[in-house]
């Protein structure tokens, strides 16, 4: 292709935009970076005041820096807004610059939605998908960008520039393509600054024009050579650096003195809008996760998925709570209680705001200083508290009844279960029942205070004893709405709990409560609820059946689990006869890395849990649920002395790992809850499940996709960093061949995959304990001292299990159905309560379509969003039992209609193409 020439002066256009890469918090806490931000923006405002014709300045693709600045300088709001409306300052498209893979797909969309809409409201938005410093890029990013109105992307890490040039067509998993530019692999998004002006600015020198021109020409010519069209895009800016008049004056000097090139000051998207021809560009599909190549510096930094793992777990919990329960059920509750019209939306938005502030890549990746992660704890708490409160309140409203309740915790109890997934739930659930202590005494006290009669002869819960009354329990039965009794297993009892009940128009009441934790099988329709009833009984019912064969093995209809002599598990799929040996092996490896990188030192050692099993205990024993507790003690050095001896510490300690191995009746998975009593430092803890499944690829859930990755990599020696043992993903990783499928379901554990070994073990990094943080001499909280808890499950099927079925397994594992308790008066009959109860599904989905969001947009619209995880198109039929008048497929901002959908009796149907993300807007 011929270089683009300006016909007026025959100079070639070189596109350049001004920016700064602004990590909101990283090697300094937020408040310190904000102090520098205020200085930088103050200087920028002064520059624009003195020279109104200065070119645009782009705020690092983020919106949040504006809010951060205006909290300190509110009096400058009008000056900033004027510059934004004049397109002199450009915001967005992101709210905060997030990590792309650790957080969920819904978090990515919420982040873009808030950034784009907030920027547009002020008058200027960056229409380029700017992801300059993320540690790898997910396979659906081009589709997400395109559906948010962004037609191009700028990025750096993860691009295989050993085989492609700076511009290429990045193709999403569904085939969506966007024109993409990769920054220089040597110095990335800051290369122009670093190569041209850094030598002057870093050491307080004035820019020497002749020397700087030579540097600029070298940069331009390197970019020309690496561009398929000979086009050049430069970024003038680097981490947390201000721009000053001297830089602008040098660039003016370059334009006036150079006869070959003209620097055109522009916005990011101008380069893409004027790009000569895209038709012959190389297409690069799916994820961009190539490690740093030979002679390059674009490090992928592959181990951030296991840094500060406690914060990844909190993030995953908050995302699940908001998307699966707070948003959909607040919508259902609003529609069910249309007369009240209490608006939950501002609370939900505030919860998301706290959460998204933690999604900045150096924050959620766990590679910042201790104070940053301390600040994150507060924001996680606020996001969680708001979401939990909304869930509690909407469940109360959805579990109300016209039957008056006089004495709480007294009569028949209705337990209403809520399913936060787009598929019916049929399976086990553990739940609690609260019985008030001394019920008759409490009832008479409350009734006397309220001047109400009370009868205690009917429908009251009384205790009954077993074995000569050495232990007494409340006697009750569990029934469905049709009156049929449901078998249950009593798990545990908690006595002397203090519960409060907030009464509208009254004051807080406090009750002494006994909590009974039980397990039973429940059916709950998709995005709906169903009821079980706790009925007073005559006798205590304890079923003595068991899933145990002996003290170290148990089984259900599908799975048999045995503890072996060396402390690992043998797990057999009874349907396919496939046996998985040496499962649940823990590995502790010395790690002198930091928040970014796992690094095993030359003299570092690895310790296995094999032959370290100290005890086996039966914790739960019954017909519906069996729990075996395994206690491991792995003797290890307490740390590694890297600075002096480069040897493991001579002092040893026992790293204690307590594992609950959980098997439910009717389930095709074994669940694990591992508690690590951490007494050592500087290590990585993994857990392995060898599969011996003959495949060279595995699958991992990433935002809106089930991505396929290679297990074995050739020519690792050609990279500056090795391929990681495995990568970063979401809630699910699995491997399959033509006979079997083995999967791990993960709760807030994003670093997982299949290790490149012959037995192809599914593996998880549970945690890394590090004391190195960026630009410090070492800090403490990254060591994760004390107790850490991890939850995961090993799920086994035959080869026919679909991607969608496995994804829904992971969704249910992460989002167990929730429940709440409604108490009726002892004077209310069983038949009346059954008649006032129901089962309901708000959204019926019988297809392999993964619903990821159900939420209100405004007072007249709501959306259902989801994706097809398959390589084949699927026909989708949704029965939407919420009043609505019309529906259409839109962009991800719910603003641009793409296609109308025909509505038939509250049902809609459409085809979801392979790997497509579908956003459906409903008007009601």
What brief labels describe this structure?
924 residues, alpha+beta, disordered N terminus
Helix content percent band: 10-25%
What's the number of helices? 16
DSSP strand content: 25-35%
Largest sheet: 9 strands, antiparallel
Distance between the termini: 53 Å
The neighbouring-strand order within the major sheet is 26-27-30-31-40-37-36-33-34
Spans of 5+ residues with little confidence (pLDDT < 50)?
1-5
Radius of gyration: 30 Å
Mean pLDDT: 93
How many strand segments? 51
Structural class from helices and strands? alpha+beta
Bulk shape:
globular
Write the layout of secondary structure elements.
Blueprint: E1 12-19, H1 30-50, E2 57-58, H2 64-72, H3 77-85, E3 89-90, H4 105-122, E4 129-131, H5 141-147, E5 152-155, E6 167-171, E7 177-182, H6 191-201, H7 209-226, E8 233-236, H8 245-257, E9 261-265, H9 268-273, E10 283-285, H10 309-336, H11 345-357, H12 361-364, H13 370-398, E11 413-418, E12 425-436, H14 439-449, E13 463-466, E14 471-474, E15 476-479, E16 489-501, E17 509-524, E18 528-536, E19 548-550, E20 553-555, E21 559-563, E22 569-573, E23 579-583, E24 585-590, E25 606-608, E26 613-620, E27 625-637, E28 640-641, E29 647-648, E30 652-664, E31 669-678, E32 683-690, E33 697-702, E34 705-710, E35 727-728, E36 732-736, E37 740-746, E38 751-754, E39 761-769, E40 786-798, H15 803-814, E41 818-823, H16 830-835, E42 840-841, E43 843-845, E44 850-858, E45 861-867, E46 874-880, E47 886-890, E48 897-901, E49 903-904, E50 907-912, E51 917-923
Parallel strand pairs: 1-2, 1-8, 1-9, 2-3, 4-5, 5-7, 6-10
Antiparallel strand pairs: 6-7, 11-18, 11-41, 12-17, 13-14, 15-18, 16-17, 18-42, 19-20, 20-21, 21-22, 22-23, 24-25, 24-32, 26-27, 27-30, 28-29, 30-31, 31-40, 32-39, 33-34, 33-36, 35-38, 36-37, 37-40, 38-39, 43-46, 44-45, 45-51, 46-50, 47-48, 47-51, 49-50
């Amino acid at each position: 292709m011929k270089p683009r020439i300006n016909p007026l002066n025959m100079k070639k256009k070189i596109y350049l935009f001004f920016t700064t890469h602004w990590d909101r918090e990283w090697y300094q806490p937020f408040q310190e970076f904000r102090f520098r931000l205020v200085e930088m923006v103050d200087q920028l405002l002064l520059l624009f005041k003195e020279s109104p014709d200065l070119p645009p300045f782009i705020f690092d693709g983020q919106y949040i820096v504006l809010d951060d600045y205006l909290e300190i300088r509110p009096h400058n709001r009008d000056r900033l807004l004027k510059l934004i409306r004049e397109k002199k300052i450009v915001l967005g498209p992101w709210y905060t610059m997030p990590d792309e893979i650790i957080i969920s797909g819904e978090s990515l969309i919420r982040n873009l939605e808030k950034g784009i809409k907030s920027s547009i409201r002020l008058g200027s938005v960056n229409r380029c998908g700017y992801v300059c410093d993320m540690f790898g890029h997910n396979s659906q990013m081009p589709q997400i960008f395109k559906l948010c109105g962004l037609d191009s992307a700028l990025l750096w890490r993860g691009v295989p520039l050993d085989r492609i040039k700076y511009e290429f067509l990045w193709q999403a998993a569904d085939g969506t393509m966007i024109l993409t530019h990769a920054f220089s692999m040597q110095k990335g998004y800051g290369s122009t600054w670093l190569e041209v002006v850094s030598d002057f600015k870093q050491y307080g020198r004035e820019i020497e024009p002749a020397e700087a021109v030579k540097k600029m020409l070298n940069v331009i010519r390197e970019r020309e050579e690496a561009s398929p069209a000979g086009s050049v895009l430069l970024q003038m800016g680097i981490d947390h650096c201000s721009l000053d008049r001297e830089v602008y004056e040098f660039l003016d000097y370059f334009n006036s003195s150079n006869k070959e090139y003209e620097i055109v000051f522009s916005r990011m998207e101008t380069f893409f809008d004027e790009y000569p021809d895209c038709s012959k560009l190389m297409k690069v599909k799916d994820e961009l996760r190539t490690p740093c190549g030979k002679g390059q510096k674009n490090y992928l930094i592959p181990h951030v998925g296991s840094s500060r793992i406690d914060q990844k777990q909190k993030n995953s919990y908050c995302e699940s709570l908001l998307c699966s329960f707070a948003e959909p059920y607040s919508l259902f509750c609003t529609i069910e209680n249309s007369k009240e019209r209490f608006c939950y939306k501002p609370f939900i938005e505030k919860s998301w705001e706290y959460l998204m502030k933690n999604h900045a890549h150096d924050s959620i990746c766990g590679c910042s200083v201790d104070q940053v992660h301390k600040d994150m704890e507060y924001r996680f708490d606020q996001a969680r508290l708001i979401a939990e409160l909304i869930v509690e309140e909407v469940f109360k409203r959805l579990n109300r009844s016209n039957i008056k309740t006089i004495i709480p915790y007294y009569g028949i109890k209705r337990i209403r279960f809520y399913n936060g997934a787009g598929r019916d739930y049929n399976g086990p659930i553990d739940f609690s029942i609260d019985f008030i202590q001394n019920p008759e005494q409490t009832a008479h006290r409350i009734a006397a205070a309220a001047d109400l009669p009370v009868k205690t002869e009917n429908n009251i819960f009384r205790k009954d004893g077993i074995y000569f009354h050495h232990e007494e329990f409340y006697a009750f039965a569990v029934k469905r709405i049709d009156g049929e009794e449901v078998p249950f297993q009593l798990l545990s009892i908690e006595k002397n709990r203090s519960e409060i009940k907030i009464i509208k128009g009254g004051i807080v009441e406090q009750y002494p409560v006994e909590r009974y934790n039980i397990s039973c099988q429940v059916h709950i329709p998709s995005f709906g609820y169903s009821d079980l009833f706790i009925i007073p009984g005559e006798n205590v019912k304890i079923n003595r059946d068991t899933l145990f064969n002996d003290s170290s093995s148990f089984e259900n209809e599908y799975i048999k689990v045995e503890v072996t002599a060396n402390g690992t598990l043998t797990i057999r799929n009874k349907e396919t006869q496939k046996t998985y040996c040496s499962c649940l092996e823990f590995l502790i490896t010395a790690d002198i890395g930091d928040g970014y990188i796992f690094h095993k030192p030359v003299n570092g050692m690895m310790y296995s849990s094999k032959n370290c099993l100290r005890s086996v205990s039966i914790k739960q024993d019954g017909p519906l649920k069996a729990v075996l507790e395994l206690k491991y003690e792995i003797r290890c050095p307490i740390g590694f002395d890297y600075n002096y001896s480069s040897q493991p510490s001579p002092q040893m300690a026992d790293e204690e790992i307590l594992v609950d191995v959980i098997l439910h009746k009717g389930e095709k998975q074994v669940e694990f809850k591992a508690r690590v009593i951490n007494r050592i430092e500087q290590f990585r803890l993994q857990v392995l499940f060898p599969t011996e499944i003959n495949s060279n690829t595995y699958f991992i859930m990433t935002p809106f996709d089930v991505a396929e990755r290679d297990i074995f990599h050739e020519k690792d020696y050609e990279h500056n960093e090795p391929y990681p043992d495995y990568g970063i993903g979401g809630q699910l990783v699995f491997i399959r061949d033509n006979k079997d499928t083995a999967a791990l379901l993960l709760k807030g554990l994003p670093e997982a995959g299949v290790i490149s070994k012959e037995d192809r073990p599914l593996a998880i990094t549970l945690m890394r304990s590090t004391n190195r943080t960026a630009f410090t001499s070492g800090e403490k909280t990254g060591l994760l001292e004390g107790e850490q808890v991890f939850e995961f499950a090993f799920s086994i099927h035959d080869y026919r299990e679909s991607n969608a079925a496995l994804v829904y397994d992971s969704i249910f594992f992460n989002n167990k159905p929730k429940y709440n308790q409604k108490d009726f008066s002892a004077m209310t009959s069983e038949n009346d309560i059954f008649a006032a109860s129901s089962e309901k599904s708000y959204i019926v989905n019988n297809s392999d379509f993964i619903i990821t969001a159900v939420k209100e947009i405004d007072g007249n619209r709501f959306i259902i969003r989801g994706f097809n995880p398959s390589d084949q198109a699927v026909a989708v039929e949704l029965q939407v039992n919420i009043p609505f008048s019309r529906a259409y497929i839109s962009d991800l901002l719910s603003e641009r209609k793409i296609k109308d959908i025909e509505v038939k009796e509250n049902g809609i149907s459409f085809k979801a193409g392979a790997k497509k993300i579908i956003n459906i807007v409903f008007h009601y």
